[in-house]
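Researcher: We plan to redesign the surface later, but first we want a full-length starting point. Tokens attached.
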């Protein structure tokens, strides 16, 4: 895994966890991360990620029913 250091202006009212959730959610939404990878980036289990990602404006929707069943089974 790569390490990234960001300088975020003080005026942006986000903590480290929120930044990780936003990045993980966006990369998952774009299909660049699997559900498991997104959860790991956010520092959460898959189940916890699924439960809280909606608070950040993202939904866990798979392209196919099979993918959805697999995600639920592996959560």
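Model: Full-length starting sequence:
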């Amino acid at each position: 895994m790569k390490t990234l250091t960001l300088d975020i202006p003080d005026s942006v009212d986000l903590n480290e966890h929120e930044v990780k959730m936003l990045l993980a959610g966006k990369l998952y939404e774009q299909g660049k991360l699997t559900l498991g990878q997104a959860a790991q980036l956010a520092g959460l289990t898959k189940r916890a990620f699924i439960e809280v990602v909606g608070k950040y404006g993202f939904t866990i929707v798979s392209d196919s029913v099979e993918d959805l069943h697999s995600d639920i089974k592996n959560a």
